C-alpha cells in the first residue's frame, strides 16, 4: 500500500513513472533460470492505451484539446480517479501473483535478483534391474538363435561378394521389422585375392604340394633363402635364436600358427631381415586335416592399409599413401602336409627342448642349415571392392545422443560359421529381444544402442575401422562403449575376455548373473573365475581381436570375450569352420553357449543404458598406470646405478602425473558419493567426465597415419609405456646422446598424456591439478 500511495502522489505531482516487469524463464537444458527485467514508461503506456499523445498523427481519431479543457474539474477528477483505481487493482493483482511465484520458485528472500532453483529433469520411467534381467533371460531363446543360425549360414560370403551383400540385406530387413531406424555406409577398399595361379613354395628346388591358402597384404615377391625354424615367431623366440648365435638375416622362417597374429609373426621376422615367412598349423595345436589351407592377412594394423588414418568413402580423394604396417617381405601359409615334407628333412642343430613338442610326422624339429633352401613366390592380386556396413539403432529416451555399439563381422573366407555366422545371429537376436522389451514390457533405455554388421573383417577389421576413421571426431564425444560378438564361441571349457579396465567391474558382476552353459547350477563366475577372476578370465586385447581398433585407435571402452577350448585351437580362417565342427568343439552345446554369450552382451548393454551413471570404473586405471610407472622406475634406477643411463633422466614428473590421475579418480568417486543421483543433469555432467577418460589416453603427439593405435597403455608403438619399458630393457651398454634425447622425448610425451587424462577426469579447468 505504501507503493500505491507513492504512485498516487507521483501521478498528481506529474512526475514520470516506470514499472518493472519480471520474466521468469526456465532454461531448456535444466540450467538455473534467469530473471528478465524490462523498464518502460507508465505515461507512455497509458497514453498509448488511451489514444492520447503529443503527435496527432499517432491517433486514429481527431484531437480536440478545447473540449477537454472545457470539462468541469469534477469530471476530470472522476476520470483520473477511475483510471487510478483500475491501475491500483491491476498493480495489486500483479504484485500478489508475483509474490505467489516467489514462494514456489525462488529460494532467496531478495524480491528482485533472486536465483531460480534448478528444476530436475524428470526421470524416464523404466523397469528395475531384476525385472530387466528376468525379461532378457526369458526373451533371449535358443530357438530364435537356432533359427537365425540357419538363416544367416552361408557357404560363400567373402567381403564385397554377392553373398555378403545378400546377408547385409537380410540383416537390414530384420532391423526394419523390429521397428529400428536403419542405414548403411559404403566404402571402396583395397584387398588381396589369390591370383590366377596359386602361390608356390619350393624346397631344395622341388615344388612342395599344392598351395591354396594365402595371406592378404603380403609383399608380392619371389625370394629364396635357407630354412630356419623359429617356433611361434614371437619376439622371445627370435631372441632365443640370437642367444644361440643363429643368423636370421636372409632366412626363410618357418613358424607355427597360434599365440599371436600372423601379422605380428611376419613383422618380427622382417625386423631381423628374414627374407620370407611360412606359417603352418602344427597338429599339437590344430585338429584339422593335413591338406586344410589357412587364410589370413599380414597387415600390422586394421582397416584399409592404402588409406591409413582416413576413411575410404567413395568421395575421398585417395592420396598415394600406404600403411607403415604393410610387410616388406613375402609371407605364405602352408598345410600340415607341406610343413611335414619340409620340416622332416631339415638339418642343422636341434631346436630348444620347448620347441620340439610338435606333432608333425617323422619330424625332429631341427633349426635347419644353409643347404635347406626354400623358394617362396607370392602372386596375390590387389583389387578394389565396394563393401557395406549395416546399422540399426534403438534411440534412448533421455540421452539419445549418447550411445554404445554392439558389432559383429558378417563376411568370411569360407563358411565362417564360428567366425561370423554365430556373431551375426546373436546380433539380430539381441536387437529383437531389446526392441520387444521396449514395445511390450515398458523398458525405456536412457541412452541409445547401435547394432552394427561389419564387412571385410577377415582383412583386419576393414569395415569397422573405416567407419571409425570416418566419424572419429563425433564418436569420441558420444560413444561410450563397444561390445564385439566376433568369435564368441570356439569351445566350452574356458571363458576369456579382453576389455578396457573401465569395464572390469561390470564384467565381474555380469559373470555372477549369467548361468554357466555347461553347469546350470553355477554362474559363469563360479565356473571359470578360480581363486582370482582377473588372472583366470582377463587377457590383453590383441591386434587380431575386432574390438582392438575401437579401444586403441578411437579411445572407446571396448569388450571382446569368448567361450573357447584350452586344448586345441579352433580352425578359424579355414574351410573347416562349419556348424558340424563347432558342435564337436563345444561338445554339442553350441546353442546353450550362444544363449549364455547373448546374456553376457545383453546384461552389459542393459546396465550401460539403464543406470543413471555409466557403469565405468575410472579408478581401475590407477593400478594399470601404477604398474607401468613401477616398472619404468625400477629400470631407470637400475640403469642409472650401472651408469648406462644419465642422472638427468628423472622420474619426478611421471610420478607426479600418476598422482594427479589418482587424485582425479578419487575426487570423482567422492563426487559421485555426494551427488543426488536422481538429478539427471548432474548425472550427465559426471558421465561426461567418465567418457573423457579412455580417449584421453590416446597420445596427441603421434599421427594416426603413422601410429594408428595411439593408446599409451593398451596400444602399440614407441609412444606407449610398454615401449618405454622395452626401451629400458634393451639398454645393454651406454646410449649415445641421440638415443638419450629420443628416450627423454618419449618419456616426456607419455608423462604429459597421463597428466592430460587426469585433467580431463578432473572436470572443469578450475578443478584441475596443475602442480606438474
Automatic annotation (TrEMBL):
Residues 224-287 form the PA domain. The chain crosses the membrane at residues 76-96. CDD domains: M28_TfR, PA_TfR. Residues 389-584 form the Peptidase M28 domain. Gene3D superfamilies: 3.50.30.30, Transferrin receptor-like, dimerisation domain, Zn peptidases. This is Transferrin receptor protein 1. GO terms for molecular function: transferrin receptor activity. PANTHER family: N-ACETYLATED-ALPHA-LINKED ACIDIC DIPEPTIDASE (PTHR10404), TRANSFERRIN RECEPTOR PROTEIN 1 (PTHR10404:SF26). Its main location: membrane. It is found in: Cell membrane; Melanosome. InterPro entries: PA_dom_sf, PA_domain, Peptidase_M28, Peptidase_M28B, TFR-like_dimer_dom, TFR-like_dimer_dom_sf, TfR1/2_PA. Stearoylated. Homodimer; disulfide-linked. It comes from the Eukaryota. The keyword Nuclease does not apply. Residues 656-761 form the Transferrin receptor-like dimerisation domain. Belongs to the peptidase M28 family. M28B subfamily. One of its GO terms (cellular component) is external side of plasma membrane. It comes from Carassius auratus (Goldfish). Cellular uptake of iron occurs via receptor-mediated endocytosis of ligand-occupied transferrin receptor into specialized endosomes. Endosomal acidification leads to iron release. The apotransferrin-receptor complex is then recycled to the cell surface with a return to neutral pH and the concomitant loss of affinity of apotransferrin for its receptor. Transferrin receptor is necessary for development of erythrocytes and the nervous system. Acts as a lipid sensor that regulates mitochondrial fusion by regulating activation of the JNK pathway. Residues 43-65 are annotated as: Disordered.
Amino acid at each position: 500500500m505504501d507503493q500505491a500511495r507513492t504512485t498516487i502522489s507521483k501521478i498528481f505531482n506529474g512526475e514520470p513513472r516506470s514499472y518493472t516487469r519480471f520474466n521468469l524463464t526456465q532454461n531448456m537444458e535444466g540450467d538455473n533460470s534467469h530473471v528478465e527485467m524490462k523498464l518502460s514508461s507508465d505515461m507512455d503506456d497509458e497514453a498509448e492505451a488511451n489514444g492520447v499523445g503529443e503527435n496527432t498523427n499517432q491517433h486514429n481519431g481527431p484531437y480536440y484539446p478545447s473540449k477537454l479543457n472545457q470539462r468541469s474539474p469534477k469530471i476530470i477528477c472522476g476520470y483520473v480517479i477511475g483510471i487510478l483505481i483500475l491501475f491500483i487493482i491491476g498493480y495489486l493483482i500483479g504484485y500478489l501473483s508475483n509474490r505467489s511465484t516467489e514462494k514456489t520458485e525462488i529460494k532467496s528472500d531478495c524480491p528482485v535478483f533472486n536465483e531460480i532453483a534448478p528444476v530436475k529433469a524428470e526421470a524416464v520411467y523404466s523397469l528395475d534391474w531384476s525385472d530387466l534381467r528376468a525379461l532378457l533371460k526369458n526373451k533371449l531363446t535358443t530357438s530364435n538363435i537356432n533359427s537365425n543360425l540357419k538363416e544367416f549360414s552361408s557357404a560363400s560370403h567373402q567381403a564385397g561378394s554377392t553373398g555378403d551383400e545378400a546377408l547385409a540385406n537380410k540383416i537390414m530387413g530384420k532391423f526394419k521389422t523390429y521397428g529400428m531406424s536403419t542405414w548403411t555406409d559404403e566404402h571402396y577398399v583395397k584387398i588381396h585375392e589369390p591370383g590366377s595361379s596359386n602361390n608356390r613354395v619350393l624346397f631344395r628346388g622341388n615344388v612342395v604340394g599344392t598351395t591354396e591358402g594365402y595371406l592378404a597384404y603380403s609383399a608380392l615377391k619371389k625370394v629364396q633363402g635357407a630354412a630356419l625354424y623359429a617356433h611361434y615367431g614371437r619376439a622371445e623366440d627370435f631372441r632365443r635364436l640370437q642367444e644361440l648365435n643363429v643368423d636370421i638375416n636372409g632366412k626363410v622362417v618357418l613358424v607355427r600358427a597360434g599365440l599371436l597374429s600372423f601379422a605380428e609373426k611376419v613383422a618380427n621376422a622382417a625386423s631381423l631381415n628374414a627374407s620370407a615367412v611360412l606359417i603352418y598349423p602344427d597338429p599339437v595345436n590344430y585338429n584339422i586335416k593335413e591338406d586344410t589351407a589357412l587364410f589370413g592377412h599380414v597387415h600390422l594394423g586394421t582397416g584399409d592399409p592404402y588409406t591409413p588414418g582416413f576413411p575410404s568413402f567413395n568421395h575421398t580423394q585417395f592420396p598415394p599413401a600406404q600403411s607403415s604396417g604393410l610387410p616388406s617381405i613375402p609371407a605364405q601359409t602352408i598345410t600340415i602336409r607341406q610343413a611335414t615334407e619340409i620340416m622332416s628333412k631339415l638339418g642343422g642343430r636341434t631346436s630348444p627342448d620347448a620347441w620340439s613338442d610338435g606333432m608333425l610326422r617323422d619330424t625332429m624339429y631341427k633349426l635347419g642349415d644353409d643347404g635347406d633352401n626354400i623358394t617362396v613366390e607370392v602372386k596375390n592380386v590387389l583389387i578394389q571392392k565396394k563393401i557395406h556396413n549395416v546399422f540399426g539403432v534403438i534411440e534412448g529416451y533421455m540421452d539419445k545422443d549418447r550411445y554404445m555399439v554392439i558389432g559383429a563381422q558378417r563376411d568370411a573366407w569360407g563358411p565362417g560359421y564360428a567366425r561370423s555366422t554365430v556373431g551375426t545371429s546373436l546380433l539380430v537376436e539381441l536387437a529383437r529381444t531389446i526392441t520387444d522389451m521396449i514395445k511390450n514390457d515398458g523398458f525405456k533405455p536412457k541412452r541409445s544402442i547401435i547394432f552394427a554388421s561389419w564387412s571385410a573383417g577377415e582383412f583386419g577389421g576393414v569395415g569397422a575401422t573405416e567407419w571409425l576413421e570416418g566419424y572419429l571426431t563425433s564418436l569420441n564425444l558420444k560413444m561410450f562403449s563397444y561390445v564385439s560378438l566376433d568369435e564368441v564361441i570356439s569351445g566350452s571349457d574356458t571363458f576369456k575376455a579382453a576389455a578396457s579396465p573401465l569395464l572390469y567391474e561390470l564384467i565381474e558382476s555380469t559373470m555372477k548373473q549369467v548361468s554357466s552353459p555347461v553347469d546350470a547350477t553355477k554362474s559363469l563366475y563360479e565356473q571359470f573365475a578360480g581363486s582370482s577372476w582377473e588372472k583366470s578370465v582377463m587377457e590383453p586385447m590383441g591386434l587380431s581381436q575386432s574390438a582392438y581398433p575401437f579401444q586403441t585407435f578411437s579411445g572407446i571402452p571396448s569388450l571382446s570375450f569368448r567361450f573357447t577350448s584350452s586344448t586345441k585351437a579352433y580352425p578359424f580362417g579355414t574351410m573347416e569352420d562349419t556348424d558340424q565342427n563347432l558342435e564337436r568343439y563345444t561338445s554339442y552345446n553350441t546353442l546353450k553357449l550362444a544363449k549364455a554369450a547373448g546374456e553376457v552382451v545383453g546384461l552389459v548393454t542393459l546396465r550401460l543404458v539403464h543406470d543413471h551413471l555409466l557403469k565405468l570404473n575410472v579408478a581401475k586405471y590407477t593400478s594399470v598406470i601404477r604398474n607401468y610407472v613401477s616398472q619404468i622406475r625400477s629400470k631407470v634406477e637400475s640403469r642409472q646405478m650401472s651408469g648406462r643411463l644419465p642422472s638427468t633422466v628423472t622420474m619426478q614428473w611421471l610420478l607426479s602425473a600418476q598422482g594427479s590421475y589418482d587424485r582425479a579418480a578419487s575426487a570423482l568417486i567422492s563426487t559421485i558419493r555426494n551427488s543426488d543421483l536422481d538429478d539427471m543433469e548432474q548425472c550427465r555432467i559426471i558421465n561426461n567426465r567418465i567418457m573423457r577418460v579412455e580417449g584421453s589416453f590416446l597420445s596427441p603427439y603421434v599421427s594416426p597415419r603413422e601410429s594408428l593405435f595411439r593408446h599409451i597403455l593398451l596400444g602399440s608403438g614407441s609412444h606407449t609405456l610398454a615401449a618405454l619399458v622395452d626401451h629400458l630393457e634393451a639398454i645393454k651398454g651406454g646410449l649415445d646422446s641421440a638415443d638419450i634425447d629420443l628416450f627423454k622425448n618419449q618419456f616426456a610425451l607419455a608423462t604429459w598424456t597421463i597428466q592430460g587424462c587426469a585433467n580431463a577426469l578432473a572436470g572443469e579447468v578450475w578443478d584441475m591439478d596443475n602442480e606438474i
